[in-house]
């Protein structure tokens, strides 16, 4: 039993007053990158869902309604730009940060024109990823 703010409850009982963790959709064709981002974000209190490609990402977005998206630009099949456009058709207010390798500045500019709010360069630094998410989530 825990006593918190004058209330007694079981230790495993969730805090009914705590807001739900922000849900983040991670989209990348690299399983290694998805794993690393999921581990980092989960350890920082985020609820993470993921998708290995653009087509799957659009379906996951529709089903899970994430608070923000980290979206790789270069993927086979539906690339990041097409995925971004599809997600923004589902939700024009979708908060998306593009994940890009070095040397893709022209694609980044196109992504920003298409509605991306930020971009993260691979190999990513955890502090930069977390800062981008804070920026996206503050834009509610």
List keywords for this structure.
single chain, 140 residues, alpha/beta, Rossmann fold, five-stranded parallel β-sheet, two-stranded antiparallel ribbon, 5 helices, 41% helix, globular, disordered N terminus
Would you kindly provide a written description of the structure presented here, covering whatever features stand out?
By secondary structure, the chain is of the alpha/beta class. It has one domain (21-138): Rossmann fold (3-Layer(aba) Sandwich). The chain has helices at 31-43, 54-64, 80-90, 105-113, 126-138; strands at 2-4, 7-9, 23-27, 47-51, 68-72, 96-100, 118-121. Strands 4-3-5-6-7 form a five-stranded parallel sheet, with helices on both faces. A two-stranded antiparallel ribbon has the order 1-2. Strand 1 and strand 2 form a beta hairpin. Helix 2 (54-64) packs parallel to helix 3.
Fold topology:
Layout: E1 2-4, E2 7-9, E3 23-27, H1 31-43, E4 47-51, H2 54-64, E5 68-72, H3 80-90, E6 96-100, H4 105-113, E7 118-121, H5 126-138
Parallel strand pairs: 3-4, 3-5, 5-6, 6-7
Antiparallel strand pairs: 1-2
Helix-strand makeup class = alpha/beta
- Strand/helix succession: EEEHEHEHEHEH
Looking across the biggest beta sheet, what order are the strands in?
A: 4-3-5-6-7
Residue stretches low in confidence (pLDDT < 50, at least 5 long) are: 1-13
- Rg over alpha carbons: 17 Å
CATH architecture name: 3-Layer(aba) Sandwich
CATH class equals: Alpha Beta
What's the assembly state of these chains?
single chain
Helix percentage: 40-55%
Major beta sheet summary: 5 strands, parallel
- Total domains: 1
Nearest-integer average pLDDT: 87
Number of strands: 7
Q: Would you tell me which CATH topology applies?
A: Rossmann fold
Give the CATH H-level superfamily: Response regulator
Q: Count of helices?
A: 5
Spatial shape: globular
End-to-end distance: 37 Å
């Amino acid at each position: 039993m825990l006593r918190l703010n004058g209330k007694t409850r079981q230790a495993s009982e969730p805090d009914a007053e705590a807001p739900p963790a922000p849900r983040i959709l991670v989209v990348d064709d690299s399983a290694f990158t998805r794993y690393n981002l999921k581990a980092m974000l989960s350890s920082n209190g985020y609820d993470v869902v993921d998708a290995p490609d653009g087509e799957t990402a659009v379906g996951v977005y529709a089903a899970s309604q994430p608070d923000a998206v980290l979206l790789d630009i270069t993927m086979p099949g539906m690339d990041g730009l097409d995925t971004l456009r599809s997600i923004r058709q589902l939700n024009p207010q979708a908060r998306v940060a593009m994940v890009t390798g070095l040397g893709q500045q022209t694609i980044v500019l196109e992504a920003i024109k298409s509605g991306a709010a930020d971009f993260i360069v691979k190999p990513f630094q955890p502090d930069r990823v977390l800062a981008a998410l804070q920026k996206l989530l503050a834009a509610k």
